[in-house]
From TrEMBL:
Family listed: Belongs to the ATP-dependent AMP-binding enzyme family.
Gene this protein is translated from: acs
Residue ranges of the TM segments: none
Name of this chain's protein: Acetyl-coenzyme A synthetase
Coiled coil regions in record: none
Length: 657
């Protein structure tokens, strides 16, 4: 035998360390991180990011991806992805049959490209309602496991019980004068009644208007008006992070004329024309789904952004197929899984979780409250969560606040992460909580995709904070400033290559063509490209790393740098909890200046801290990147999908100055 390559030797050393951790779980994470750096610090750049998890043979062979490769006679994932984009109708036909998507009338064919790839017609001639595909398992199978902040007891809802409540809500819609096509707002935490109301609305032929439970009255009113919603479902109040959140008060302040209110322990004082949840529900537990063309709107969601008018993105009865496909093949969800993803109905991951779970015959675990303390840690353990979705800021909170110390999360077999770019140290820490048995599958996409465009899988090695593949059935290209494909270790803007089920084709309040296609370059072979706005680094060995949004790139001293790169350095300072880097033009024109907004762990003199941060940036990035100003704030503004709204910070700074 020849000598192992340096990367083979590194892999061997890392697995030896994992054995050490398995034998002694009390080894502090600081030692894990030091060991990781020590083992991989000399890894040559051509070897790519260092994987810390590899699929074992039994994990590979039992995966959903192994099944599709076996069915199609394909030997490896790379060939599978190539087949899925070169044979898109055949791929989606396989997905539809494999997931058991139900139709009242089957489609005449899978795809019609008469109007081009930017305006395809999927499943022409079909009649369907996607909720009929959500209840195709025995009624006594667990559908939802529910928990609440501060309470140790769990509640289990079966598929049969959930469908009965779905039908009672759908009948209530009809009984109270609402009709097919009407829009109904949902503004409440992600709970079992929320899921039932969501599916009942879709089953009735109406449209859900998804509104995050963190939104103010003005934001609620704006979204209801854009969607033309006639009624809103909310809760009187709920408990989160140790305090009562009064959502019905917000609804009244927003001036919403008609509300359905879920009461708590005390009766709510309802205004005229409002009705309680119990009075709205029908006693009838059967309902025949309203079927129609798959392009009928089922859900109106809104783009990132809390300033200006949000972009209203309609989901159709097709979009959930994309959610379920991603969950099945990239998340490896199966009927034995219990999936949890702390979210809300106003962010696409709320509806995504509903469909990815139920269309894959799995269960979902829903936690009402703030997912940051011992109560949530205990919930994950007691609910036997096997698939846990996260966002990077949540992981950072768990780690810095030692929020999951003492919990046993070894039952988790897969983590998934979305919402914002992650960092290696936090995600190595997360994987360490399962003894490195569970990989983190990064998942990047958007509401207008219905899921992800770049992700990972359980058949790929996992290196913290990296991606390994485009999503099946979809492809992309990364272009530099000259519209040329980037090479290894280069950064560019990601463009999608349509078509795919899940990609939006309409917007309620903006020109879809202008938003996503106008001004896009063609691909190297003349392909039509679709704008999405993500900046991606192409790394060796087939890895990728998210670099933030393309509109978060700034030009400092003639050098382009992303906000994310700066924030990663700033966040390493002992006094900084979180930061946002923003480029401003103080006079409205001329060179961009760097302004740092920081949330502090320790109170510090601002000028002294600015000097220390400048030293860090100069040492680890570029001394030409000069901090123009440092602003200390209590918290960073975020969208419902947890993205930092740098535009609002920029506007706030300029108006103040």
């Amino acid at each position: 035998m020849g000598h192992p390559t340096p990367s083979d030797d590194n892999k061997s050393q890392w697995f030896d360390f994992i054995k050490e951790v398995t034998a002694n779980p009390s080894i502090p994470f600081d030692h894990h991180w030091s060991k990781f750096q020590q083992i991989f610090e000399r890894q040559a750049p051509p070897d790519g990011p260092p994987p810390v998890w590899y699929p074992r043979e039994e994990e590979f062979s039992s995966s959903n991806l192994a099944q599709i490769m076996l069915d199609l006679g394909i030997d490896n994932y790379s060939d599978l992805h190539t087949w899925s984009i070169n044979n898109r109708p055949a791929f989606w036909q396989y997905v539809i049959q494999h997931l058991g998507i139900a139709f009242e009338k089957p489609p005449d064919r899978i795809l019609d490209l008469t109007n081009g790839v930017s305006d395809p017609r999927w499943l022409p001639g079909a009649k369907m309602n996607i909720t009929d595909s959500c209840f195709q398992v025995p009624g006594d199978k667990t559908a939802i496991v529910s928990g609440k902040e501060g309470l140790s007891d769990l509640t289990v809802t079966t598929y049969g019980e959930l469908e009965s409540l779905v039908n009672r809500f759908a009948n209530g819609i009809r009984d109270h004068g609402l009709a097919k096509g009407d829009a109904i707002g949902i503004y409440m935490p992600m709970t079992m009644p929320c899921v039932a109301a969501y599916l009942g609305t879709v089953r009735s032929g109406c449209q859900v208007v998804s509104i995050a439970d963190s939104f103010s009255p003005d934001e609620v009113r704006t979204r209801m008006e854009i969607a033309g919603a006639k009624v809103i479902l909310t809760v009187d109040q709920y408990y989160r992070a140790g305090r009562n959140i009064r959502l019905y008060d917000n609804v009244k302040e927003a001036g919403i004329k008609r509300a359905i209110v879920i009461e708590g322990d005390n009766k709510a004082e309802l205004k005229k024309d409002d009705i309680t949840w119990e009075d709205f529900l029908s006693k009838e537990t059967s309902f025949t789904s309203v079927t129609d063309d798959p392009y009928q709107y089922s859900n109106i969601l809104f783009s990132s952004g809390t300033t200006g008018t949000p972009k209203a993105i309609p989901w159709t009865h097709l979009t959930p197929i994309k959610c379920a496909m991603d969950g099945h093949f990239h998340g490896d969800l199966s009927p034995n899984d219990i999936a949890s993803w702390p979210s809300n109905i106003g962010w696409m991951m709320g509806p995504w979780l509903i469909y990815a779970s139920l269309l894959n015959h799995a269960a979902m675990a829903l936690y009402e409250g703030a997912p940051i303390g011992p109560s949530f840690t205990c919930f994950v353990e007691k609910a036997r969560v096997s698939f846990l979705g996260v966002v990077p800021s949540l992981v950072r909170t768990w780690r810095t606040q030692r929020a999951i110390e003492g919990g046993d999360w070894t039952g988790i077999r897969i983590f998934a992460s979305t919402g914002e770019p992650s960092n290696r140290e936090d995600y190595l820490w997360l994987m360490s909580k399962t003894g490195y048995r569970a990989p983190v599958i990064e998942y990047l996409g958007g509401t207008e995709i219905g899921g992800g465009h770049i992700t990972g899988s359980v058949v790929h090695p996992a290196s913290p904070a990296t991606f390994t593949t485009p999503s099946l059935g979809l492809d992309f290209i990364i272009l530099d400033d000259n519209d040329q494909p980037v090479g290894e270790n280069e950064i560019g803007e990601l463009y999608l290559i349509p078509p795919s089920i899940g990609l939006s084709q309409n917007l309620l309040n903006k020109d879809h063509e202008e938003e996503y296609y106008t001004g896009c370059p063609n691909g190297p072979d003349g392909e039509v490209l679709r704008r999405h706005g993500d900046t991606i680094a192409r790394l060796p060995k087939g890895f990728f790393r998210a670099q933030g949004r393309s509109d978060d790139t700034m030009n400092l001293s003639g050098i382009k740098v992303s906000s994310l790169e700066l924030e990663r350095i700033i966040d390493t300072h002992d006094s900084v909890y979180q930061s946002a880097a923003v480029a401003v033009q103080p006079s409205g024109e001329g060179a961009e200046k760097l302004v740092i907004f920081a949330v502090l762990i320790l109170i510090r003199d601002c000028k002294t801290l600015q000097g220390e941060l400048q030293t860090l940036i100069g040492k680890f990035l570029n001394p030409l990147f000069r901090i123009h100003d440092l602003v200390i704030i209590d918290s960073l503004p975020r969208t419902e999908s947890n993205k930092i709204t740098r535009r609002s910070l920029r506007a706030q700074y300029l108006s103040y100055k």
